[in-house]
Amino acid sequence: MELKINNLTKTYPNGVVALDNVNLNISSGMFGLLGANGAGKSTLMRIIATLQEPDTGSITLNGIDVLREKDKVRQILGYLPQEFGLYPKITAEVLLNHLAQLKGITNTRERKETVSALLQKTNLYEHRHKNLGGYSGGMKQRFGIAQALIGEPKLIIVDEPTAGLDPAERNRFHNLLGEISESIVVILSSHIVDDIQSLCSQMAIINRGVVLIAEKPNVAIDTIRNRIWRKIVGKNEMDEHGNLNIISHKLSGGKIEIHVYSENNPGNGFESVEPVLEDVYFSSVFQHSQN
Amino acid sequence: MFIDIFLFELKYRAKRPATYLYFLIFFLLVFFATVSDNVTIGEQAGNMLRNSPSAIFRITAIMSAFGVLIVSAIMSTPVLRDFEHSTNHLLFSYPMKKFAYLAGRFLGSYVFALFVFLSIPLGILIGSFLAPAMGWIEASRFDSFRLMSYLSPFLILVIPNVFFAGAIFFSLTSLKRRMIYSYLGSVLLLVIYVWAASQLMKLDSKSLSAILDPFGIAPFSIITEYWTPAEINTLLVPLSGKLLVNRLLWVSVGALLLGFTLWRFRLLTVFEKNAKKTIKTQAVEEPANINVELPHVSQDHGKKRHLKHMFSLGWMEFSTTIKEVPFIGIVVAGVLLLLSNVVTVGEMYGTNTYPVTYNLLEFTSGNFMLIMLIIITFYSGEMVWRERGYGINQIIDTLPLPNWLYVGSKVWAMLLILVLLQAILMVVNIFTQVYHGFYDFNLPLYFAKLFTVQLPLYFAITILAMLIQTLAGNKYVGHVIVMFYYIVSFIALGMLGLEHYLWKFPQTPPSPYSDMNGFGHFLTSVRWYQSAWLALLIVLMLIMVLFWNRGFKLSLVNRIKVARSQFRGAIRTIFFVALAGFVILAGFIVYNTAILNSILSYKDFEKLMVKYENTYKKYQGIPQPKVKAVKVNVDIFPDERDVVINGILCLKNETSTAIDSVHLVLERGIELAQCQIGDNSQWALADDELGYYVVLLGSSLMPGDSIEMAFCTKFISQGFINGSGRTTVVQNGTFITSFEFVPSIGYQPGNELSDRDKRKKYKLPEKQRKALLNDSVALQRTYLGPIGDWVDFEATVSTKPGQIAIAPGYLEREWEENGRHYFHYKMDRPILNFYSFISADYQALEDKWNDVDLKVFYHKGHEYNIDKMIEAMKSSLDYFTVNFSPFQHKELRIIEFPRYSTYAQSFPTTIPYSESIGFIANLKDEEDIDYVYYVTAHEIAHQWWAHQVIGGDVQGATLMSEALAQYSALMVMEKRYGKDQMRKFLKYELDKYLRGRRSEMLKELPLTLCENQNYIHYNKGSVVMYALQDYIGEENVNAALAAYLSDWAYLNPPFSNSSDFMKYIYSNTPDSLNYLVYDMFETITIYDIKAREASMEQLDDGRYRVTISGGVQKFRADSLGFETPLELNDWIDVGVMTNRVIDGKKKQVELYLKKHRVDNCNPVFEIIVDEKPVIAGIDPYNKLIDRHSDNNTVKIK
């Protein structure tokens, strides 16, 4: 499976540039999209999921023109939107079964098995006879995951899938995705960097509609190895470092830990750190905003 | 806190474009109703000023009733939007007082809703200034600006209406947290409103409706029901009585609801009920077996599957919808509305008709249409936006299914809903029939009407509404556009003169059903239109498919792009095939309606009338010969709907000059195929457009000479027509008259435009409705117009075998020849030059009265009242021959004709009688008014009053025909049913008279000057003639009538006028009562009589002395209803009654009833009666014309 995105551009009527000449090649396996809120992740995912039209550009999936042959894409697509609702007066089992029907699983026995398996995998089996109106946020999210997996999709797009899940559920979901992603394309967006790092074989960082980096996570980390420096400073010492490339700062035990991107040791008490994906993200966003 | 929330709400509203859209729509509606004749809201009688206090009040009332939809849109959202946008999670966590939150939101929205309704007075106000200034409508139709005319309805109607309706919607949505409950609320209010409106016409239940009508229209109508034009134009509607009670009631309902809401509302985001459940189920949660393998599945993406899915999805949408509480609520409301009217069917004088299917169905489906339109409007929106409403759209939209499947499933669901509703309507109707003990259900008719005529219409409206919703991109905007569409299609098209049904998608021409004629020729054009609309609907559905909202917030440009990219393959092919189909079908319709037949709008007709008058008026009154004998051959072809008449009229020059040309007038649409007058005559003018012809005689017709005119007229039906077409020529029940089919001699002023305002608009001179009383030229002709008077008559009528053809006269011969059924009729004495021909498949009931043959020709199945008719014929002949004069004919026939017209009409020996006004009347209850008896006697009386003696063509002529026929019928009825029924009947007559004055177009006149005004010669005629015989005695009235007959019957011109007639009345009236005759016949005199108090004491001899005090006033009214008080010196009934049980029924019995002379306005009467009395009254039986007829009696204390 291979998804090719070429020169994709999308500008909203209010002038916001959601996607700016995006080019990506995504092969089988899990692909993580990393970006701040409003970076354009959801727009990109919706376009791939046939729900939105770009202004220009093209997308192909194994030779299928995604923008034109929407129906073909939909036949192999599993999609979990970032926000969604469900019919309140219907049970999980009934709705899942109905969606399976609509996805073309005509064989009753197969459909029953699929529904049952999906409900078990998403830990909803106990609640299958309950109306969806009574579901908690986490349960609803799990139902969303279940429906995205109906019918052996070849392309799965999940937008912030673990939002609202407790840590155990999150792990379970990660395992589930890992299990099925071997031969298919899974695109996952998140702003939780750890998720991407632990799950994805490929990833892209996107900021204000521009793809900053598209690499394997460890390759991306390698590019900044020995260039990230850390220092713990007091709250009022921040200004002293204004001339440095501070890519991030966070509170740490009442003091502030700042990370600086520099090819050489900036001295002044900074120490080198082993970079993580988060540093890749921050440094690339930092550089993008510098330009 | 409260102020902040209130101001925030105002600011929020001020930024919503919808608010201004509502304002604009209302403003425009009211504005156009004020400045245009084509848009009317409420009544618009000729004498009422367009901005009179009452007119403004009524417009405001009606707009505030329909404005309930806007109130619902505004007042439902203030709290609901916090739930919909989930801002409640934030807001409710603030330290906010419940009262401040609710009150602030409510009042903020309320103030804005009031702002929207300001559009009503503003629209009228601006219209009232602009219309005269711009010359759209004459200045005389407008009142000068009076602040209170505008202010009072706003205070009395708008402020309370918006308050309580707002309170209902606010409470429903705050507590139930779903918009749809608000729709339910508005439906309930409208149902109560429609119910109240339907009760208004019933004399018994109108008080209740006055109090319950939520919008105040019913109490207003009752308060002003007998107001004269003068009062309507000057008086403010008083906030008192029922109107006050009504207002207080509904404001309290609103206040109570708000209180309840304040008490029940919780600043919580989740209902506790649900929260508990979640906790419980969480307890049993166990880790799942996540290691289960996902099975391998096969997927089928074939097209066959899609169709199946479309239906199953549709079924799912359908079954979810009909289980929803609001849907059930709306339907239940609709059914209740229908059931509230179950008791009365086709009421006339308080008597029902049998609930025959067509009658019931027309009535109930008219009422149910409101429910249908509401459901279509709201549920089209719900259906199109359902996924988005639930937020599941992004999941559903990525399913591997084509757009048409979604559209198809929703269309299918809506279709199922419509079918269900129509089926419910049918069940309710059948229930109604069973309730009335009527088991002759016409199931094929139910099916045809509900499912093949109405359903396609509703379905088409649904598709249109769904398409609008799809294109609008937002549900609420969609609703507003759909409602706007209703308004436009009902109002604007007529305004633009676009009356062709092709402009009126998705309407079709009407298809009235008659038991006699079935659907007749009507269905043909309906089916063609339906086919054309179906093709168009396919196109619309495809547009809906192309523009289906799939995906994420697509901009218009993108939607067009997507639509264009999908416009290929099968969709494209079907689109063009359907479009071509539509064009071809529409072309065929145009060919039929506009080329084979001419299509004329209402305005075209007006222009033709104007042209007729402008072109040919100059010929009015030129010397013309008069018809003296008629001999016609009429060939009726029912199946083809053709009529051919070949006839010979014998014309005589009764003028003193030679005549060299004959002018003929014939109705438009009837072809004058041939006309020869004497030898060598030739056409001088043949104007088919205006139906005016001039024939030049070969040689002049000298005074006193006669000549024969041979003519041939034809009506040949071709194709079908826009609208109903000629309903007089039909497959079963053809009923044509000489007015329609035989050329009249000379210019006919009756064909001129008569509406006063329209005449002004077209710059025609003002026209007298009738010539003045003593106009000697007009007295030369009868009031039927310049068509001649007495003629010899002979006719041969042929029709198809199996039908009977009837004309005035006696049947001389009946035979079959060349596959045709012939009847030859001949009259043995001259009759008026006005006759009819009828043909249908009849049953006949025959009887005899002395040597007169009596016949009722009726449609099989309509046997209900034919015996009653025979009985009425006999008793009428009994009474009239004894009291008036001998009957001039040897035969009398009642002939049923289809219900396309609803009257009976008396021709010599023949009385055509509509199937809808007696043949199906339910007279099982002896207490009910037997209007069959009444109508029959009335028409038979016309054999005397019109066919023996007839007034000249001047004012007051109908006093001697219609008023006397009413009197004669009343006497026949009284002999049969007694005085009690007469009182009941006269109550209706008095009511109709008083209502009639209100809507007089020009001016009210006394009976003796009546200008063919129905409410005067029928209704006032009944009341006055009955009172006359009560005051001067029946035998004296009859003596006067008999003397009038013997002096004036069958005379040649000049004909009598009402002052000739009144001489006979006066000469049979004692001098002491001359004032009464003068008051009743020659003036408009109104009494206001009431009994205030009555008390009694038992006397020593066991008898009772009753003391009655009352108030009596007498007024003289002018033609607009301005009243001046009169001195009293009048004889008025004083009565004392008690209750007795007679035949197991409680009845009122008179102990005393005598006329007393009353000469002061606060009279007191002392009366001694033998028995213990219960009720006392002054003019207790309403013999005098009294605007408050219900306060003439009191209980004795």
Protein described:
Chain A has helices at residues 41-48, 70-75, 92-102, 108-121, 137-148, 167-180, 193-199, 217-224, 277-290; strands at residues 2-11, 17-27, 29-34, 56-61, 64-65, 77-80, 155-159, 185-190, 202-207, 210-215, 228-233, 246-252, 255-261, 271-272. Chain A is α/β, with parallel strands linked by helices. Chain A has two domains: 2-216, P-loop containing nucleotide triphosphate hydrolases (Rossmann fold), CATH 3.40.50.300; 222-290, no CATH class. In chain A, the strands form three sheets. Chain A has a six-stranded mixed sheet, with helices on both faces. In chain A, α6 (167-180) links the parallel β7 (155-159) and β8 (185-190). In chain A, α3 (92-102) crosses α4. Chain A is globular. By secondary structure, chain B is an alpha+beta fold. Among the domains of chain B are: 2-275, no CATH class; 309-596, no CATH class; 944-1083, Neutral Protease, domain 2; 1084-1197, Immunoglobulin-like (Sandwich), CATH 2.60.40. Chain B has 35 helices and 27 strands. In chain B, strands 1, 2, 4, 7, 10, 12, 13 and 14 form an eight-stranded mixed sheet that branches. Chain B has a four-stranded antiparallel sheet with strand order 5-6-3-9, with no helix packed on it. In chain B, a hairpin with a 2-residue loop joins β23 (1130-1142) and β24. In chain B, α4 (68-75) runs antiparallel to α10, α10 packs antiparallel against α11 and α20 (403-435) packs antiparallel against α23 (522-546). Residues 271-285 of chain B have low confidence and may be disordered. Classes of the chains: A alpha/beta (291), B alpha+beta (1197). At the A-B interface, α2, α3, α4 and α6 of A face α15, α16, α19 and α24 of B.
